[in-house]
């Protein structure tokens, strides 16, 4: 029985979560930010449902009434793009992002904690580089060369500023990813000391 329990625990560490009834999905190391990200995720999940409804409506309008809209495609691309971008932050807050655990699962708990700290710091640095790259996209999408604010648009008949808004959102999410990984690193270090 105890041998079976150890196998279950090893499997749970590779995902960072335990699938027990009533268990908290957000790990305590994620802190307040992780809990806030988990709550806000419902908004982006609703965006996926809304985009599916818009596409269904567009199919109905186009093929039944022969009256397609000019905004359905760009709206669904925008909503899904925001949801997928937020998904990276959501998976990080839940500590359920994809990782290779071939070596990690064989490590002892103290060494695993050191790896958790190092992995979190490395991920924060990588996210910082992505935030820097996203900032360059934002500067071209939001400001003209003269310094005036002009949001980049799609260039379609509807012409919404969704490209600029998406790039701004990517930048914000990258900054939040840096913060979330640093929160993980600090909390893993605190746990290792105690």
List the helices and strands and how they pair.
Elements: H1 2-15, H2 31-63, H3 72-93, H4 109-142, H5 162-193
Helix pairs in contact: 2-3, 3-5, 4-5
Overview of this protein structure:
By secondary structure, the protein is mostly helical. It has one domain. It is 70% helix and 0% strand. It is built from five helices and no strands. The chain has helices spanning 2-15, 31-63, 72-93, 109-142, 162-193. The longest helix is centred in the middle third of the chain and has 34 residues, at 109-142. The radius of gyration is 21 Å and the shape is elongated. The model is unreliable at 1-18 (pLDDT under 50).
Number of domains: 1
Structural class: mainly alpha
Question: Roughly how many Å is the radius of gyration?
Answer: 21 Å
Helix share, percent: 55-70%
Mean pLDDT: 89
**What is the strand tally?**
0
User: Total helix count?
Assistant: 5
Overall geometry: elongated
Q: pLDDT under 50 segments (min length 5)?
A: 1-18
End-to-end separation in angstroms reads: 29 Å
Protein name: TRAP transporter small permease protein
Membrane topology: Multi-pass membrane protein
Transmembrane segments: 40-64, 70-93, 114-135, 168-189
Subunit structure: The complex comprises the extracytoplasmic solute receptor protein and the two transmembrane proteins.
């Amino acid at each position: 029985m105890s041998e079976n329990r150890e196998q279950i625990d090893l499997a749970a560490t590779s995902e960072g979560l335990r699938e027990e009834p009533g268990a908290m999905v957000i790990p305590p190391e994620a802190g307040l930010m992780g809990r806030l990200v988990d709550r806000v995720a419902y908004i982006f999940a609703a965006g996926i449902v809304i985009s599916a409804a818009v596409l269904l409506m567009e199919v109905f309008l186009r093929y039944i009434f022969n009256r397609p809209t000019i905004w359905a495609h760009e709206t669904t691309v925008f909503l899904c793009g925001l949801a997928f971008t937020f998904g990276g932050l959501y998976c990080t807050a839940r500590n359920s992002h994809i990782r290779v655990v071939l070596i990690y699962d064989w490590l002892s708990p103290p060494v695993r904690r050191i790896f958790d700290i190092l992995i979190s710091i490395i991920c924060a640095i990588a996210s910082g580089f992505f935030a820097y790259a996203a900032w360059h996209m934002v500067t071209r999408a939001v400001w003209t060369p003269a310094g005036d604010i002009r949001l980049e648009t799609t260039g379609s008949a509807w012409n919404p500023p969704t490209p600029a808004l998406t790039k701004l959102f990517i930048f914000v999410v990258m900054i939040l990813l840096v913060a979330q990984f640093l929160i993980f690193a600090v909390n893993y270090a605190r746990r290792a000391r105690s």
